[in-house]
């Protein structure tokens, strides 16, 4: 209650154009997300909070995009589906210490302690996923909430979603593509969600699975940002500028970026 009141007070006591107002709004949104994440999906009453969802096929480079935004390596890696539960990543911008050093830490919603070794984040994600998701390649819609505090980040909420795959492997159900697609749509269909559609540079952006999925819920491309990864392995003779300018890719109001 104290934390929620402080966030609310920052909103009420600040000018709408001030940084304090924006910080207060984001803090209040994060407080609400914490509450909603502990409720069953059918008890959330259709509440839709602002967030940025990262969408892409398996091995498209989603993890690299997220880690670039945070400036640290902390996500599971591997050849199979690495993100097996949605990860709600709340970034909180903090002030550097009086000595100018950046003090960074993380905290899971299901754990009370602070984590300063970012390798522990990866281990905890893998541990809690293995404990709650049956099989080594199956997925679950139950989200993990992680807060990261750092002067190097911008305050925002990101959602890392399991990569879309078409062919079931190992112990995955035969309809794994449908399961993953429905799970992804449940996040990106909300009007308050900005979609980061991630496509690797060695794939045809015009036929990107992420773009196709985004178009189903955002047909006018108003809230979709195209992200092209692995541009260093694009086919010889391919001009990435043609994609960034939207000349060889579906039109998006937010455009394209290369990472």
Automatic annotation (TrEMBL):
Pfam families: Dynamin_N. InterPro entries: Dynamin, Dynamin_GTPase, Dynamin_GTPase_CS, Dynamin_N, G_DYNAMIN_dom, P-loop_NTPase. PROSITE patterns: G_DYNAMIN_1, G_DYNAMIN_2. CDD domains: DLP_1. SUPFAM superfamilies: P-loop containing nucleoside triphosphate hydrolases. GO terms for molecular function: GTP binding; GTPase activity; microtubule binding. Keywords: GTP-binding, Nucleotide-binding. GO terms for cellular component: cytoplasm; membrane; microtubule. It comes from the Eukaryota. The keyword GTP-binding applies. Residues 46-259 form the Dynamin-type G domain. PANTHER family: DYNAMIN (PTHR11566), DYNAMIN RELATED PROTEIN 1, ISOFORM A (PTHR11566:SF21). Belongs to the TRAFAC class dynamin-like GTPase superfamily. Dynamin/Fzo/YdjA family. This is Dynamin-type G domain-containing protein. It comes from Tetraselmis chuii.
